[in-house]
Design brief:
The structure is a homodimer of 219-residue chains. With 219 residues, chain A is of the alpha+beta class. Chain A has helices at 5-9, 19-28, 85-90, 112-116, 126-151, 156-171, 182-189, 193-205, and strands spanning 32-36, 41-43, 51-57, 60-65, 71-77, 82-83, 98-101, 105-111, 175-177, 209-212, 215-218. Chain A folds into two domains: 2-142, Sandwich (Jelly Rolls), CATH 2.60.120; 153-218, Orthogonal Bundle (Arc Repressor Mutant, subunit A), CATH 1.10.10. The longest helix of chain A is centred in the middle third of the chain and has 26 residues, at 126-151.
DNA sequence: TAAAGTATGTTGAAATTTCAACACATTGGA
DNA sequence: TCCAATGTGTTGAAATTTCAACATACTTTA
């Protein structure tokens, strides 16, 4: 287990827990690991959600298949990232997504109940673990809320301005860098890239903002 | 405190906790209550998030003011509902929203840290409380995720079909009732009501679905 | 350095949405 | 019973988006 310590250290679930405590706790938590080959389905839609997954090596893809059989990719997770944590906390009877190995991957599973119900051994950092898991969920909730606020706007222009002013607020200043290139920004705003570019040009001409690359300045 | 027991019983934070245990715990948690007059700002944007709020009587509005000073209403909360729980769990330095009393309202505040770090008294149901809070956050995460999946579609038609097929999946059958009237459905999908009505008619003519009121049947 | 690849901006046509206005049905009082 | 209020469906015009295709700048690497 120790060989993955560097991964645990960047996993938000183990934030502020010492190396030794991590190892001890993984025992208490009855964590188990598994290796999956490329394209293997780690968790399938419809299966009950019980375990939180952690990517120890490799990477996985979150996918979803709709009513008509069209598969869409919801995201990619790399080393240290968690999956299924919300579904596991809810004890959902059937997962709404599948998790598939992108490449040969080591995955760790922890029964969510073992995290939520503190063990008999009185692990000193069990509370921290609960605290961390709560933070992960809370952060996700807040991020989703912000995204909904942005993409619920009707036009590309409004979406863009809502996003940019949120950034300005966060940075406490009118000029800032965004963490996206144009295509990524379009994907985040859920709009067409070329239309987005056009709107940025227009806002620039109108004197509403300045922009060079991913650096923006609201006027 | 006992006079609000009927409210606590429908509050998800106290699910599966007995009346007596609720009262005992509220002491341990150092919960405090306050009365706010209509239009009073209970929590203001920019103030640090520390407490989870519970509406004991009356109702509150979640609002947000953008860069240009436009205020928008994000939601209404009634008796038994929680607010600011995600922000408090994250210990956000400044709230991204305000909470305003819609009418004269009794509000209870609980320091989030008191929930997350179990007390010395060994309250038997403290674990249940943590578990419940986690479920609240997890449920919200999942609901937001589903909403994003729906409204990230580009056209009204796609949004509607994505929503309806999700409902069908949940109900395990092709016919079901939705919890919205047309205007509410349009608000949820973030589209124009009349355009939504037009799309429903079109899908009906194409033989894709049947519908009477809020009852739908996918063909 | 040249070539290939990637990121971005521009454009016009087609598709779609929004918006406003109105028709019709249903509901709940007065 | 009648009236007002509410919910829903329809329509056409204006605004906006998407889509495809291409131009231009910047990067990477052979």
């Amino acid at each position: 287990m120790r060989k993955f310590l560097n991964v645990f250290k960047k996993c938000p679930l183990f934030f502020d827990v010492s190396d030794d405590d991590i190892i001890t706790m993984l025992g208490c938590l009855k964590a188990r690991t598994d290796i999956f080959d490329k394209n293997y389905t780690i968790l399938s839609e419809e299966s009950p959600a019980k375990y939180i997954g952690i990517v120890l090596s490799g990477s996985v893809q979150i996918t979803q298949t709709d009513y008509y059989g069209n598969r869409s990719i919801l995201g990619n997770l790399c080393e240290g990232e968690l999956f299924a944590e919300a579904f596991a906390c809810m004890q959902m009877a059937s997962m709404p997504v599948s998790v598939v190995a992108n490449e040969k991957s080591n995955i760790m599973f922890i029964d969510c109940n073992h995290i939520l119900h503190t063990c008999q051994n009185g692990c000193p950092h069990h509370q921290q673990l609960i605290y961390n898991l709560m933070k992960v969920l809370a952060l996700k909730t807040v991020m989703f809320q912000q995204k909904i606020e942005v993409i619920s706007k009707r036009t590309t222009r409004e979406k863009l301005l809502t996003y940019l002013t949120t950034c300005a607020k966060k940075n406490n200043r009118n000029s800032f860098k965004i963490p996206f290139n144009r295509q990524e920004l379009a994907d985040y705003l859920e709009v067409d890239r070329s239309g987005l570019s056009a709107q940025i040009s227009k806002l620039r001409k109108e004197g509403v903002l300045e922009c060079r690359g991913n650096y923006f300045n609201l006027l």
